[in-house]
Amino acid sequence: MVNCNDTDINQQVEGLVTPTPTGEVEAQAKKSKSSGKKRNKAPWAKLLSQYPQNPHRVMKGPVFTVGRQGYLDKEQLLVNAARASRVENQDAIDACIVGMLGDPREARVGITEVHFFPFNPVDKRTAINYIDANEKWHSVSKGAPEQIIELCNLREDTKKRAHDIIDKVSDRGLCSLAVGRQTVSEKEKNSPGEPWQFLGLLPLFDPPRHDSAETIRRALDLGVNVKMITGDQLAIGKETGRRLGMGTNMYPSSALLFATL
């Protein structure tokens, strides 16, 4: 592992893992691999449509991780993301990420949890302090990419590459989660620790609630002028609007500065 200031971001292989039914997806992946058939450019697209009731789906690939010496592979990235997730009383995203592991218990194997910091709307990330088998302290955090990128103090060129990747997956209607890690030499849960390392990005498919489209349709039928305000990127907002039957005529907040009221 190298410090995030000295790293590049490399694209890894494509694929998809869902929390349920994982076995069926894995079986399809193995079948595709053994058949030797040419894969589609977006192998996840067909699989996504097969599970409309699944509230959250995380793509196992493309996974974007730190490159060069000692680079982190996608399985290690997922383990670190799972460590920064609750293993009990989970929200949908935590349940999905932990469920991507072969065995959910891997999220805490070989470590002792010291303290878990739940998500809050200010920091927009979760974090965990833990002790490894060598009695060394570490922190891992996952959350909004801009928060993790700022936490890791990435170089401008690496930051640009990260944002290019985020923009690319958002064009497909996918959100992104970033993961970072640090060593905590002081062995105190609130200590600043060593510089944070940027581990990688996880594209996340986060569809609307299954009943949202029907609720909006009823409101429109009653003459309610429904508007959507979102903190997501424009491409993701448009995809959400399309799924909800609200159309794709949407604008970034900056457009309001020049609007005629």
From TrEMBL:
Gene3D superfamilies: Calcium-transporting ATPase, cytoplasmic domain N (3.40.1110.10), HAD superfamily/HAD-like (3.40.50.1000). The keyword Translocase applies. Residues 30-41 have a biased composition (Basic residues). Residues 1-13 have a biased composition (Polar residues). It comes from the Eukaryota. Its EC number is 7.1.2.1. GO terms for molecular function: ATP binding; P-type proton-exporting transporter activity. Residues 1-41 are annotated as: Disordered. It is a multi-pass membrane protein. InterPro entries: ATPase_P-typ_cyto_dom_N, HAD-like_sf, HAD_sf. Its main location: membrane. GO terms for cellular component: membrane. It is found in: Membrane. Keywords: ATP-binding, Magnesium, Membrane, Nucleotide-binding, Translocase, Transmembrane, Transmembrane helix. Belongs to the cation transport ATPase (P-type) (TC 3.A.3) family. Type IIIA subfamily. This is P-type H(+)-exporting transporter. It comes from Eruca vesicaria subsp. sativa.
